[in-house]
Amino acid sequence: MLPEYLESVVNGSKTFEIRKNDRNFSVGDTIFLNEFDAVKMTGRWTERVITYITDYEQKEGYIVMGIARP
């Protein structure tokens, strides 16, 4: 996740993620969002719990997840 997006999750202004559902995500799952500076992982990360999932109006195989601090 690019630094500006991770920062928005950390500061609470971004409470969702749009992802390909290649891991069969479920409400209650814990996800770890890692910062990537377009070259490498920075080592910065945050943990979130999935609170809501929908595929409404998404591309095939993609979902929107509501996320919150654990």
Give the helices and strands, then pairings:
Elements: H1 3-10, E1 16-20, E2 30-36, E3 41-54, E4 62-68
Antiparallel strand pairs: 1-4, 2-3, 3-4
Q: What are the secondary-structure elements, in order, as H or E?
A: HEEEE
**In one word, what is the shape?**
globular
What's the β-strand tally?
Answer: 4
Q: What class, by secondary structure content?
A: mainly beta
Number of helices: 1
Strand content: over 45%
Kindly describe this structure.
By secondary structure, the chain is mostly beta strands. The chain has one helix spanning 3-10, and strands spanning 16-20, 30-36, 41-54, 62-68. A 4-stranded antiparallel beta sheet has the order 1-4-3-2. Strand 2 (30-36) and strand 3 (41-54) form a beta hairpin.
Keywords:
four-stranded antiparallel sheet, 11% helix, mainly beta, 70 residues
Write a concise synopsis of the structure shown.
By secondary structure, the chain is mostly beta strands. It has 1 helix and 4 strands.
